[in-house]
Write a structure and sequence with these properties.
Blueprint: E1 19-24, E2 29-34, H1 39-45, E3 64-69, E4 72-74, H2 84-88, E5 91-93, E6 97-99, E7 103-107, H3 109-117
Parallel strand pairs: 1-7
Antiparallel strand pairs: 1-2, 3-5, 3-7, 4-6
The structure holds FE2/S2 (inorganic) cluster.
Protein name: Ferredoxin
InterPro entries: 2Fe-2S_ferredoxin-like_sf (IPR036010), 2Fe-2S_ferredoxin-type (IPR001041), 2Fe2S_fd_BS (IPR006058), Beta-grasp_dom_sf (IPR012675)
Pfam families: Fer2
Length: about 130
Amino acid sequence: MPAPCCLPTLPATAAGDAPHHVTVEDTGETFPCTSQETALSALARSGRRGIPLGCRGGGCGVCKVAVIEGDYVKRVMSRGHVSEEDEQAHRVLACCIQPGSDLRLRVLGRMRKAVMQNAGSPSPVNPR
Ligand code: FES
């Protein structure tokens, strides 16, 4: 198993605490997310079922997504989970990116399976 290569916290972005929204294209769900938190943290905070919460530090690769639209700040990700080609194609780890604008994501790999299995399941917390 590759060692986590990320710092425990991400630096603040220039946008400060601006509210953004992360939309999961596969389900159409949208979650609020500040520029101070990771996309995975926002999804987890929503209470949405099926969000795989692994290491939250870039080490397990369970939270892989493709960013379809939007700007983000990323931290270093393990090459064991995100190749250079992946990174250039905006396939990244949701626990290692912070939004700089609204983001539209497509879930991949294990995250896709978990999210799609629970698509349409009621969330204990209203994400909006
Ligand atoms: S939760 Fe482990 S890499 Fe994102």
